Protein backbone atom coordinates (compact mmCIF):
# COMPACT_ATOMS: atom_id res chain seq x y z
CA UNK A 1 0.00 0.00 0.00
CA UNK A 2 1.52 3.33 -1.09
CA UNK A 3 0.63 6.24 1.19
CA UNK A 4 1.28 9.87 0.24
CA UNK A 5 1.87 11.69 3.53
CA UNK A 6 1.90 15.35 4.56
CA UNK A 7 3.30 17.06 7.68
CA UNK A 8 2.90 20.83 8.26
CA UNK A 9 2.39 21.13 12.01
CA UNK A 10 5.07 23.76 12.62
CA UNK A 11 7.85 25.19 10.44
CA UNK A 12 8.78 22.20 8.26
CA UNK A 13 6.85 21.44 5.09
CA UNK A 14 7.24 17.71 4.57
CA UNK A 15 5.91 15.23 2.02
CA UNK A 16 6.75 11.52 1.79
CA UNK A 17 5.66 8.29 0.16
CA UNK A 18 5.64 5.25 2.45
CA UNK A 19 4.85 1.66 1.52
CA UNK A 20 3.12 -0.66 3.98
CA UNK A 21 4.06 1.39 7.01
CA UNK A 22 7.75 0.52 7.08
CA UNK A 23 9.39 1.24 3.72
CA UNK A 24 10.12 4.89 2.92
CA UNK A 25 10.12 5.43 -0.83
CA UNK A 26 10.77 9.17 -0.54
CA UNK A 27 10.95 11.82 2.17
CA UNK A 28 11.20 15.51 1.26
CA UNK A 29 11.44 18.39 3.73
CA UNK A 30 11.45 22.12 3.03
CA UNK A 31 12.94 23.83 6.07
CA UNK A 32 12.03 27.33 7.22
CA UNK A 33 14.77 27.57 9.83
CA UNK A 34 16.69 30.32 8.03
CA UNK A 35 13.63 32.57 7.98
CA UNK A 36 12.53 32.00 11.58
CA UNK A 37 16.09 32.36 12.89
CA UNK A 38 15.74 36.08 12.15
CA UNK A 39 13.01 36.25 14.81
CA UNK A 40 14.49 33.79 17.31
CA UNK A 41 11.54 31.44 16.95
CA UNK A 42 8.66 30.37 14.73
CA UNK A 43 6.33 33.11 13.50
CA UNK A 44 3.01 31.29 12.85
CA UNK A 45 1.78 33.51 10.01
CA UNK A 46 5.08 33.24 8.14
CA UNK A 47 5.14 29.47 8.67
CA UNK A 48 1.65 29.09 7.21
CA UNK A 49 2.45 31.16 4.13
CA UNK A 50 5.66 29.23 3.49
CA UNK A 51 3.74 25.94 3.69
CA UNK A 52 1.34 27.20 1.02
CA UNK A 53 4.26 28.09 -1.24
CA UNK A 54 6.18 24.84 -0.74
CA UNK A 55 3.64 22.03 -0.54
CA UNK A 56 2.74 21.63 -4.22
CA UNK A 57 6.27 21.45 -5.67
CA UNK A 58 7.36 19.30 -2.73
CA UNK A 59 4.58 16.82 -3.50
CA UNK A 60 5.73 16.55 -7.10
CA UNK A 61 9.30 15.99 -5.89
CA UNK A 62 8.25 13.29 -3.42
CA UNK A 63 6.43 11.38 -6.15
CA UNK A 64 9.38 11.78 -8.50
CA UNK A 65 11.86 10.46 -5.93
CA UNK A 66 9.55 7.55 -5.15
CA UNK A 67 9.38 6.67 -8.83
CA UNK A 68 5.58 6.65 -8.71
CA UNK A 69 2.74 8.29 -10.59
CA UNK A 70 -0.32 9.77 -8.95
CA UNK A 71 -2.36 6.71 -9.92
CA UNK A 72 0.01 4.54 -7.85
CA UNK A 73 -1.09 6.22 -4.59
CA UNK A 74 -3.51 4.14 -2.51
CA UNK A 75 -4.19 6.58 0.34
CA UNK A 76 -3.30 10.02 1.68
CA UNK A 77 -2.23 10.62 5.30
CA UNK A 78 -1.87 13.98 7.00
CA UNK A 79 -1.07 15.49 10.38
CA UNK A 80 -4.34 16.99 11.63
CA UNK A 81 -3.28 17.72 15.24
CA UNK A 82 -1.63 19.11 17.29
CA UNK A 83 0.36 22.10 16.05
CA UNK A 84 0.17 25.72 14.93
CA UNK A 85 -3.40 25.87 13.73
CA UNK A 86 -2.73 27.86 10.56
CA UNK A 87 0.13 25.60 9.59
CA UNK A 88 -1.84 22.41 10.25
CA UNK A 89 -4.75 23.73 8.21
CA UNK A 90 -2.53 24.10 5.15
CA UNK A 91 -1.59 20.43 5.22
CA UNK A 92 -5.10 19.22 6.05
CA UNK A 93 -6.76 21.15 3.26
CA UNK A 94 -4.14 20.19 0.70
CA UNK A 95 -4.41 16.53 1.72
CA UNK A 96 -8.20 16.62 1.49
CA UNK A 97 -7.94 17.99 -2.03
CA UNK A 98 -5.32 15.38 -2.99
CA UNK A 99 -7.39 12.49 -1.62
CA UNK A 100 -10.50 13.73 -3.39
CA UNK A 101 -8.68 14.22 -6.69
CA UNK A 102 -7.02 10.80 -6.50
CA UNK A 103 -10.15 9.04 -5.28
CA UNK A 104 -8.36 7.44 -2.31
CA UNK A 105 -8.96 7.33 1.47
CA UNK A 106 -7.84 10.21 3.70
CA UNK A 107 -6.12 9.14 6.93
CA UNK A 108 -5.82 11.62 9.85
CA UNK A 109 -2.68 11.20 11.97
CA UNK A 110 -1.85 12.65 15.38
CA UNK A 111 1.55 14.36 15.18
CA UNK A 112 2.98 12.72 18.31
CA UNK A 113 1.80 9.29 17.18
CA UNK A 114 3.79 10.00 14.03
CA UNK A 115 6.92 10.74 16.05
CA UNK A 116 6.52 7.42 17.85
CA UNK A 117 6.16 5.64 14.50
CA UNK A 118 9.52 7.03 13.36
CA UNK A 119 10.99 4.22 15.45
CA UNK A 120 9.35 1.64 13.18
CA UNK A 121 11.30 3.09 10.27
CA UNK A 122 14.62 3.04 12.12
CA UNK A 123 13.90 -0.36 13.69
CA UNK A 124 11.64 -2.56 11.51
CA UNK A 125 11.70 -5.27 14.17
CA UNK A 126 10.08 -3.01 16.80
CA UNK A 127 6.46 -3.83 17.66
CA UNK A 128 4.15 -2.77 20.50
CA UNK A 129 3.85 -2.99 23.39
CA UNK A 130 6.55 -0.61 24.60
CA UNK A 131 7.06 2.62 26.50
CA UNK A 132 7.94 5.79 24.59
CA UNK A 133 9.45 9.05 25.81
CA UNK A 134 8.12 11.80 23.51
CA UNK A 135 10.15 14.99 23.73
CA UNK A 136 9.86 17.91 21.33
CA UNK A 137 9.29 21.65 21.17
CA UNK A 138 5.61 21.27 21.99
CA UNK A 139 5.33 17.92 23.75
CA UNK A 140 7.01 16.16 26.65
CA UNK A 141 5.25 12.97 27.70
CA UNK A 142 5.79 9.36 28.70
CA UNK A 143 3.44 7.27 26.58
CA UNK A 144 2.44 3.64 27.02
CA UNK A 145 2.16 2.19 23.51
CA UNK A 146 -0.04 -0.86 24.06
CA UNK A 147 -0.72 -1.23 20.32
CA UNK A 148 -0.09 0.60 17.07
CA UNK A 149 -3.16 2.76 17.71
CA UNK A 150 -3.70 2.12 21.44
CA UNK A 151 -1.79 4.65 23.52
CA UNK A 152 -2.11 6.35 26.90
CA UNK A 153 -0.13 9.10 28.59
CA UNK A 154 1.42 8.04 31.91
CA UNK A 155 3.09 11.34 32.65
CA UNK A 156 3.56 14.70 30.93
CA UNK A 157 4.86 18.18 31.55
CA UNK A 158 2.67 20.42 33.65
CA UNK A 159 4.05 23.56 32.01
CA UNK A 160 6.82 23.98 29.44
CA UNK A 161 7.99 21.31 27.02
CA UNK A 162 11.67 20.35 27.11
CA UNK A 163 12.25 21.55 23.55
CA UNK A 164 10.65 24.90 24.33
CA UNK A 165 13.15 25.40 27.16
CA UNK A 166 16.08 24.68 24.86
CA UNK A 167 14.80 27.23 22.34
CA UNK A 168 14.10 29.92 24.95
CA UNK A 169 17.50 29.60 26.61
CA UNK A 170 19.33 29.63 23.28
CA UNK A 171 17.37 32.70 22.17
CA UNK A 172 18.32 34.63 25.31
CA UNK A 173 21.95 33.59 24.85
CA UNK A 174 21.75 34.72 21.23
CA UNK A 175 23.38 31.53 19.95
CA UNK A 176 20.86 30.44 17.33
CA UNK A 177 17.61 28.67 16.54
CA UNK A 178 16.50 25.96 17.02
CA UNK A 179 18.19 25.87 20.40
CA UNK A 180 18.38 22.14 21.06
CA UNK A 181 21.00 21.34 18.44
CA UNK A 182 23.10 24.39 19.26
CA UNK A 183 23.19 23.69 23.00
CA UNK A 184 23.90 20.02 22.33
CA UNK A 185 26.98 20.87 20.26
CA UNK A 186 28.16 23.44 22.80
CA UNK A 187 27.82 20.97 25.66
CA UNK A 188 30.35 18.50 24.28
CA UNK A 189 33.48 18.81 26.33
CA UNK A 190 31.81 21.09 28.87
CA UNK A 191 31.72 20.51 32.63
CA UNK A 192 28.18 19.43 33.46
CA UNK A 193 28.66 20.16 37.16
CA UNK A 194 29.89 23.75 36.68
CA UNK A 195 26.43 25.27 37.19
CA UNK A 196 23.71 24.05 39.55
CA UNK A 197 20.28 23.94 37.95
CA UNK A 198 17.06 22.59 39.50
CA UNK A 199 15.23 19.37 38.67
CA UNK A 200 11.46 19.90 38.70
CA UNK A 201 9.27 17.80 40.98
CA UNK A 202 5.49 17.46 40.67
CA UNK A 203 3.22 16.53 43.55
CA UNK A 204 0.41 14.11 42.82
CA UNK A 205 2.01 12.16 39.98
CA UNK A 206 5.71 11.32 40.19
CA UNK A 207 5.77 10.61 36.44
CA UNK A 208 4.70 14.16 35.54
CA UNK A 209 7.37 16.69 34.70
CA UNK A 210 7.93 20.43 35.08
CA UNK A 211 10.47 22.56 33.22
CA UNK A 212 9.35 26.10 34.08
CA UNK A 213 11.60 26.19 37.15
CA UNK A 214 14.60 25.01 35.17
CA UNK A 215 13.91 27.57 32.45
CA UNK A 216 13.55 30.41 34.96
CA UNK A 217 16.71 29.39 36.84
CA UNK A 218 18.71 29.17 33.60
CA UNK A 219 17.51 32.58 32.40
CA UNK A 220 18.23 34.16 35.80
CA UNK A 221 21.73 32.69 35.72
CA UNK A 222 22.33 34.17 32.27
CA UNK A 223 20.99 37.61 33.23
CA UNK A 224 22.81 37.72 36.57
CA UNK A 225 26.09 36.81 34.93
CA UNK A 226 25.65 39.66 32.48
CA UNK A 227 24.72 42.17 35.17
CA UNK A 228 27.70 41.21 37.33
CA UNK A 229 30.10 41.21 34.43
CA UNK A 230 30.91 37.54 34.97
CA UNK A 231 31.92 35.40 32.03
CA UNK A 232 29.36 32.68 31.36
CA UNK A 233 31.31 29.66 30.19
CA UNK A 234 29.00 28.51 27.42
CA UNK A 235 30.22 24.90 27.06
CA UNK A 236 29.94 24.37 30.83
CA UNK A 237 26.54 26.06 30.97
CA UNK A 238 25.23 24.03 28.01
CA UNK A 239 26.50 20.78 29.55
CA UNK A 240 24.90 21.65 32.91
CA UNK A 241 21.61 22.53 31.21
CA UNK A 242 21.53 19.32 29.15
CA UNK A 243 22.29 17.34 32.28
CA UNK A 244 19.38 18.96 34.15
CA UNK A 245 16.94 18.19 31.32
CA UNK A 246 18.16 14.61 31.08
CA UNK A 247 17.95 14.05 34.83
CA UNK A 248 14.35 15.26 34.72
CA UNK A 249 13.46 12.77 32.00
CA UNK A 250 15.46 9.58 32.36
CA UNK A 251 14.62 8.50 35.94
CA UNK A 252 10.90 8.94 35.22
CA UNK A 253 11.14 6.81 32.11
CA UNK A 254 12.79 4.00 34.08
CA UNK A 255 10.20 4.35 36.85
CA UNK A 256 7.37 4.20 34.31
CA UNK A 257 8.83 1.07 32.71
CA UNK A 258 9.08 -0.60 36.10
CA UNK A 259 5.52 0.35 37.05
CA UNK A 260 4.06 -0.92 33.78
CA UNK A 261 6.50 -3.84 33.52
CA UNK A 262 7.36 -2.88 29.97
CA UNK A 263 10.66 -4.35 28.85
CA UNK A 264 11.13 -2.11 25.81
CA UNK A 265 11.67 1.66 25.75
CA UNK A 266 11.70 3.96 22.72
CA UNK A 267 12.26 7.70 22.32
CA UNK A 268 10.65 10.13 19.87
CA UNK A 269 10.65 13.81 18.92
CA UNK A 270 13.20 16.47 18.12
CA UNK A 271 14.79 16.48 21.58
CA UNK A 272 15.42 12.73 21.18
CA UNK A 273 18.45 13.77 19.10
CA UNK A 274 20.14 15.23 22.20
CA UNK A 275 23.42 13.44 22.89
CA UNK A 276 23.21 13.62 26.70
CA UNK A 277 19.66 12.27 26.84
CA UNK A 278 20.52 9.41 24.47
CA UNK A 279 23.63 8.55 26.46
CA UNK A 280 21.88 8.63 29.83
CA UNK A 281 19.01 6.50 28.52
CA UNK A 282 21.40 3.90 27.16
CA UNK A 283 23.14 3.65 30.54
CA UNK A 284 19.94 3.65 32.61
CA UNK A 285 18.14 1.12 30.41
CA UNK A 286 21.19 -1.12 30.43
CA UNK A 287 21.31 -1.06 34.22
CA UNK A 288 17.56 -1.75 34.46
CA UNK A 289 17.67 -4.59 31.93
CA UNK A 290 15.48 -2.74 29.43
CA UNK A 291 15.85 -2.78 25.66
CA UNK A 292 16.19 0.71 24.20
CA UNK A 293 15.30 1.88 20.70
CA UNK A 294 16.58 5.25 19.52
CA UNK A 295 15.40 6.65 16.17
CA UNK A 296 17.95 7.91 13.67
CA UNK A 297 18.63 11.58 14.30
CA UNK A 298 17.31 12.48 10.86
CA UNK A 299 13.95 11.01 11.89
CA UNK A 300 13.76 12.80 15.24
CA UNK A 301 12.65 16.10 13.72
CA UNK A 302 9.38 16.70 11.90
CA UNK A 303 9.03 14.68 8.70
CA UNK A 304 6.24 13.16 6.64
CA UNK A 305 7.70 9.63 6.53
CA UNK A 306 6.66 9.12 10.15
CA UNK A 307 3.14 10.31 9.29
CA UNK A 308 2.94 7.85 6.40
CA UNK A 309 4.14 5.07 8.68
CA UNK A 310 1.60 5.73 11.43
CA UNK A 311 -1.03 6.41 8.80
CA UNK A 312 -0.74 2.82 7.61
CA UNK A 313 -1.60 1.48 11.08
CA UNK A 314 -4.42 4.00 11.51
CA UNK A 315 -5.81 2.75 8.17
CA UNK A 316 -5.58 -0.86 9.32
CA UNK A 317 -7.57 0.17 12.41
CA UNK A 318 -10.26 1.64 10.18
CA UNK A 319 -9.55 5.30 10.88
CA UNK A 320 -10.63 7.11 7.73
CA UNK A 321 -11.51 10.81 7.68
CA UNK A 322 -14.47 12.40 5.97
CA UNK A 323 -14.34 15.49 3.78
CA UNK A 324 -15.10 17.69 6.81
CA UNK A 325 -11.84 16.77 8.60
CA UNK A 326 -10.68 19.75 10.64
CA UNK A 327 -7.32 20.78 12.10
CA UNK A 328 -6.71 21.08 15.86
CA UNK A 329 -4.12 23.00 17.82
CA UNK A 330 -4.33 20.49 20.68
CA UNK A 331 -5.47 16.89 20.78
CA UNK A 332 -5.12 14.01 23.23
CA UNK A 333 -2.83 11.31 21.84
CA UNK A 334 -5.13 8.64 23.27
CA UNK A 335 -7.99 9.96 21.13
CA UNK A 336 -5.80 9.72 18.05
Secondary-structure element series: EEEHHEHEHEEEHHHHEHEH
Query: Taking all residues together, what is the mean pLDDT?
Result: 94
Instruction: Give the name of the CATH architecture of the largest domain.
Output: 2-Layer Sandwich
Percent range for β-strand residues: 15-25%
**What is the count of β-strands?**
10
For the termini, the CA-CA separation is: 21 Å
Structural shape: globular
Strand-pairing-aware structural class = alpha/beta
Annotation field: number of helices? 10
Number of domains: 2
Tell me what the structure shows.
Helix content is 44%, strand content 18%. It is built from 10 helices and 10 strands. Helix 5 packs across helix 6 (179-187), helix 6 (179-187) crosses helix 8 (234-260) and helix 8 (234-260) runs parallel beside helix 9 (275-288). The radius of gyration is 20 Å and the shape is globular. It starts with a strand and ends in a 20-residue tail after the last helix.
What key attributes describe this structure?
single chain, 336 residues, alpha/beta, Nucleotidyltransferase, domain 5, 5-stranded mixed beta sheet
How is the secondary structure organized here?
Layout: E1 2-7, E2 12-19, E3 23-31, H1 33-37, H2 44-66, E4 75-81, H3 85-102, E5 106-110, H4 111-122, E6 130-135, E7 140-145, E8 151-156, H5 162-173, H6 179-187, H7 212-228, H8 234-260, E9 264-268, H9 275-288, E10 291-293, H10 305-316
Parallel strand pairs: 1-4, 4-5, 6-9, 9-10
Antiparallel strand pairs: 1-2, 2-3, 6-7, 7-8
Helix pairs in contact: 2-3, 4-10, 5-6, 5-7, 6-8, 8-9
